[in-house]
Amino acid sequence: MQPHREERAANIALATLCAASVVLMFLPLSRPIRAVRACVAHVFEPMVFAGAQGTERLALVPKRARELMEADIENRALREEIARVGMVKAEMESVRAENARLAAALGLKVAEGKTVLWGRVMERDPAHWYHSVMVDVGRRDGVALNAAVLAQREGTVVVLGRIGEVLERTSKVLLVTDEFSSVAACLSSGTVEGLIQGQGTERLRMNYLHSEAVVSPGDQVLTSATSATFPPGILVGAVAKGYARDPFLTFQSAEVRPAIDPASVKEVIILR
Predict the structure, then answer these.
(1) What is the pLDDT of residues 130-154, one digit of tens each?
(2) Phi/psi of residue 3, nearest 5 degrees
(3) Once rounded to an integer, what is the mean pLDDT over residues 62-81?
(4) Sign (positive or negative) of CA dihedral 162, 165, 168, 170
(5) Domains of the chain
(6) Can you tell me the distance from the alpha carbon of 82 to that of 69, in angstroms, rounded to the nearest whole number?
(7) How far is CA 207 from CA 25, 69, 180, 258, in A?
(8) 61 pLDDT more than 70
(9) What span, in angstroms and rounded, lies between the C-alpha atoms of 233 and 186?
(10) Contact at 8 Å (CB) between 39 and 20?
(11) pTM of the model
(12) Which letter, b or e, does each residue of 134-148 get, where b requires 16 or more Cβ atoms within 10 Å of its Cβ?
């Protein structure tokens, strides 16, 4: 019974307000009537009294009622301003975080004419885990085919791959672990160079190392100055083991552990 009683009371109140509104619409526009109409209008839509026209309408209302209405309007305006300030603060925090990431990226030895673009990983193909990922930037953002793609691991910029396909709003990143990927690289000493080649697995292979070069597990592998795609000195990975030397080849090879697991990458750095 209680819900029905409350519903009837609400309906009666609504009917009363509607009737009062209709009566006020047809009554002569005397000052008291206009004051009552202004008060009723304020109940339903307080912000119509904001601005110069609203001030004129408030002038018709008795002083005490006008002060209450003005206080209510000011309170609502302040709440909106606080909400706006909160949004601006959130945007500033986002920009500050973006600047921090850009500052790290700008530590790269980027060739003249290239700029840094951030993108987010939006799709991975489970059937080709070590082949490619899709990112949310494309041709409209200035992404070009074969552009270098990097990632961050604990504040260090590392090689992820290169752009293999460009669409209007998205791009496909061909990972360094893909069997069609290759990167000119060198050991951290800088005196031993070779070619990093993807195997389609979680490991890379570094070929064409000098036959007399000393290669030890744990040696860092960096991009070489002879790389046509990547800036020099970017971490590619670390030597996991050296392969037995083939007497029929003039070079030796090593297995390399990539610097980052593609599955952990959420953001990428693209050099435009």
Answers:
(1) 999 999 999 999 999 999 999 988 8
(2) -60, -40
(3) 71
(4) negative
(5) 2-82 (no CATH), 116-271 (2.40.10.340)
(6) 20
(7) 89, 80, 14, 15
(8) no
(9) 9
(10) no
(11) 0.62
(12) bbebbeebebeeebb
Q: Report which residue type is found at 67.
A: E
Tokens of 18: 């509607």
Report the candidate in 122, 123, 113, 121 with the shortest Cα–Cα distance to residue 147.
Answer: 113
Length of the chain: 272
Name which of 187, 162, 199 is nearest 252 in CA terms: 187
Which two three-digit tokens encode residue 143? Answer: 């992404």
Q: How many CB atoms lie within 10 A of CB 24?
A: 15
* Residue with the two structure tokens 């003005």: 70
Provide the CB-side half-sphere exposure for 90 (13 A, CA): 6
pLDDT for 255 equals 96
| Residue whose pair of structure tokens reads 């709440």 in the numeric block | 79
pLDDT at 154: 84
Token pair belonging to 191? 């005196």
